[in-house]
Amino acid sequence: MLRKQLIAALALVTFSGAVLAGEKEDAMKCVADAVAAVNKDKTAAVAEMNNPKGRFVKGEIYVFAYDLSGTILAQPFNPKLLGKNMLDVPDATGKMYRKEMIDGVKANGSVTVEYRYKNPVDGKMEDKVSFCTKAADLAICAGYYK
User: Domain residues for 44?
Assistant: First the structure.
């Protein structure tokens, strides 16, 4: 009986969008999985990244992607942004984080960037850390809220 209660409690915490320990690792794994998918079939991978109930969404951790000019190609929670170049749009503090992401993947193949962004689970503006990796001609990113 105790085991069933523990399993039920863990499922409730997991499916309610609460993030357990390991957010950093989860975000990094999401990026690695998305990069592998892009390398296999870019069109299908981008479509899946745009699916808010798809395999690249884990509660408040989700994959998003830019082309290397800063145009958003994948963002599962804000489809209004798709196709828009956001390179010169800052976060709430004025930080040009997208430029930092694009420049970082162009120069090094990957980058970690901290900025402020709206959490899709609770709707609050929060500090976020995102990991971005270059795949094909894209910056594939996922992050966690601090």
Answer: 22-145
Q: For 36-92, what is each residue's pLDDT tens digit?
A: 999 999 999 999 999 999 999 998 999 999 999 999 999 999 999 999 999 999 999
* 11 part of a folded domain: no
Integer Cα distance of 145 and 77 in angstroms = 15
As a whole number of angstroms, the distance between CA 109 and CA 101 comes to 10
Per-residue pLDDT of 4-33, as tens digits, reads: 333 333 333 333 344 444 899 999 999 999
Nearest-CA neighbor of 128 among 61, 49, 53? Answer: 61
Q: Are strands 72-74 and 110-118 parallel, antiparallel or unpaired?
A: unpaired
What phi, psi does 100 have (nearest 5°)? -60, -40
Residue 10 lies in a domain: no
